[in-house]
Design a protein that fits this description.
The chain has helices spanning about 5-20, 30-40, 45-50, 70-85, 90-100, 110-119; strands at about 25-30, 45, 60-65, 90. The protein has about 120 residues and is α/β, with parallel strands linked by helices. It has one domain (about 5-119): Dna Topoisomerase Vi A Subunit, Chain: A, domain 2 (3-Layer(aba) Sandwich). It has a 4-stranded parallel beta sheet with strand order 2-1-3-4. The longest helix is centred in the first third of the chain and has 18 residues, at about 5-20. The relative contact order is 0.19.
Length: about 120
């Protein structure tokens, strides 16, 4: 099989992004997103559970929200809240991953990931 340089670079970048997710405290919008990430070995927490939590993570938090209006609003709200508690927030990695996979919803990442891994 002859792979283009672009395919190889995209696959390597995808692996790096997934590793970043696996090694971070990841927050997603809801339980369906948690289940989606669990299928690829990534532990995540829901927006609601973080908001209700009495103890916030001390490390950096990676926000991985849908790129729709509701997702953007929740991401903005949670980002502001966490930063006000001196928690570092990464909201770029999730957006970048959605862009690479050409999807707007976290639940929509499985098929594109499987396609890229098979190439």
């Amino acid at each position: 099989m002859n792979h283009s340089k672009k395919e190889v670079n995209t696959k390597k970048l995808l692996e790096e992004l997934l590793f970043s997710l696996k090694s971070s405290f990841v927050v997603v919008e809801g339980k369906h997103d948690v289940l989606t990430l669990k299928k690829i070995g990534i532990k995540s927490h829901t927006y609601e559970s973080v908001i209700r939590s009495k103890t916030l993570p001390s490390e950096q938090v990676l926000l991985f929200f849908d790129k729709d209006r509701r997702g953007k609003e929740r991401e903005e709200r949670l980002s502001y809240f966490l930063q006000s508690q001196n928690v570092k927030v990464d909201n770029a990695t999730g957006k970048y991953l959605l862009n690479i996979l050409k999807t707007v919803h976290v639940e929509g990442i499985l098929s594109p990931i499987e396609r890229l891994i098979k190439t």
